[in-house]
Amino acid sequence: MTDHPSLQPYVDAWTQSIEAISELVQPLAEGEWNRRTDCPGWSVRDVVSHIIGIECELLGDPRPIHSLPRDLYHVRDETSRHMEVQVDIRRHHTAPEMTSELEYTVIRRSRQLRNEKRQPDEEVRHVLPGEAPITLERLLQIRAFDVWVHEQDIRRALRTPGDLDSAAAHVSRDVLVAGLPGVARAADAPAGSAVVFDVSGPVEFMRTVRVDDQGRATVDGSVSLGPTVTLSLGWETYVRLACGRTRPEKVAEDVKIEGDAELAQRILRRFAVTP
């Protein structure tokens, strides 16, 4: 256990998800590692490689020196290029090599987290290039979120649903909800508007984004009387949209819209909040 109780929920959520991933991929045949996931351009192997690579960097391991191929359509900016190096360098690793490295990385990282002595508000390096330092607490929250989202990528690829209501799922809800004001701003929600997100399923919640007269957007859990628009959708659909795993037109039947339909469509087109 870490020295600070406020960090432990994130550590526990991360642990549950990364161990679930390890269990999911352990029995896979070689070909199953190549199954395509909803994460653009990545297979099951690539997703696991990404997780290994990030955790190794947090352990202080040096980044590999590697030149990427030029034909990777999903590599479009410096962030995706940075992330792809850890993925591409493992594309020819065998199934046993992948499971062994994942297990060893989980052991090392778990030991590091158990011995964590830093304060929750201490600033640490962000995992994304060019980003300002963040607090240790925020970093651990993001890691729990990232690993859970990728666990769901793998589960959908393998058709093995589960953990939609795990501890990390609730951490992920908080991360995604925090991005809703940015979604409203990107969609040009007008001043004085209120946008309600009514989410059902394993993680159930309702949030209202309010845009004040100066155009500032905030989110809260209070009920809005006569909202500008209400979007009702299931938790898994919400996650897939918010994480850029699907397009609005592909899940149109799963999203109920009441109110300003034009604003709703602008919101859905800008719903993704992950890099």
UniProtKB/TrEMBL annotation:
One Pfam family matching this protein: MDMPI_C
Keyword terms, alphabetized: Isomerase
Domain called Mycothiol-dependent maleylpyruvate isomerase metal-binding: residue spans: 15-155
InterPro entries assigned: DinB/YfiT-like (IPR034660), Maleyloyr_isom (IPR017517), MDMPI_C-term_domain (IPR010872), MDMPI_metal-binding (IPR024344), SCP2_sterol-bd_dom_sf (IPR036527)
Membrane-spanning ranges: none
Protein name stated in the entry: Maleylpyruvate isomerase family mycothiol-dependent enzyme
The organism's taxonomic lineage, starting at the top: Bacteria, Bacillati, Actinomycetota, Actinomycetes, Kitasatosporales
Superkingdom of source: Bacteria
GO molecular function: isomerase activity
Keyword field contains Transcription regulation: no
Every MDMPI C-terminal domain range: 183-266
